[in-house]
C-alpha cells in the first residue's frame, strides 16, 4: 500500500505574507505538518508542492522532499487544492511512480498530529471510503443563521426556524481544513476530494483554527499553547 503525503505551500500568500514559513511557536508553521507526517510512519514519501525556493529550502530542512517545483498554473490565486494534487500525482506517474493512497496536509495546520493522521487512514481503509478528513461541529445552530443586505438589515435565511428550539436542529459540521486522505485512482477519476462516500473524523474545536488574518494567527497560537499545557 504505497502512500504519499502532499503538502501544498505556494509562495504568494496575500493576507499573511510568507504565511507558510512564518514562525509559529519557535519554528516555521509548515514544519508542524511535515513533522506530523514523518512521525506517523505512514508515508513512503512526504513531499511539499511549492513554487517558492525559500519554502522549498525550509521544507527540506525539516525532512520533506521537494522533487519538483509547482507550475505557474497551479500557483495562482485560482488554482484549487484538487488541481495541485492532480499535478503532483501526474508528475510522479510520468516518472514511473504511482501511489495507492495519498494525504493532502495543509502547510498552515499546526494542530495536525500523527495520531489523527493514523485515525484518518484507518477509517479510509476500514470504511472503504473515497476520502476521510477532520470535521468540527459549529458552535451555534446554522439553521438559525442570518443573511445581511447591503444596507445592514438582517433576516433569517430559514425564517421557518425562528421559533424552533436549538436542540431540535441536527448537528452541523465544517471542514477543519487540515488534511484529506484519499484513494488516488478514485480521486484522479472524479477530480473531487469530497464525494458521497467521504467520511468525517470529528475533532474538538480546540484542535481547529482557520488562519486567514493576524487575529486568527494569534488565536491559533493561544489554542496551541493551551493544548501543550494540558498534555
From TrEMBL:
Single GO molecular function: N-acylneuraminate cytidylyltransferase activity
Cross-referenced CDD domains: CMP-NeuAc_Synthase (cd02513)
Alphabetical list of Pfam families matching this protein: CTP_transf_3 (PF02348)
Alphabetically ordered keywords of this record: Nucleotidyltransferase, Transferase
InterPro entries linked to this entry: CMP-NeuNAc_synthase (IPR050793), Cytidylyl_trans (IPR003329), Nucleotide-diphossugar_trans (IPR029044), PseF (IPR020039)
Keyword Transferase: yes
Entry keyword S-adenosyl-L-methionine: no
Protein name listed in UniProt: N-acylneuraminate cytidylyltransferase
Organism listed in the record: Cecembia calidifontis
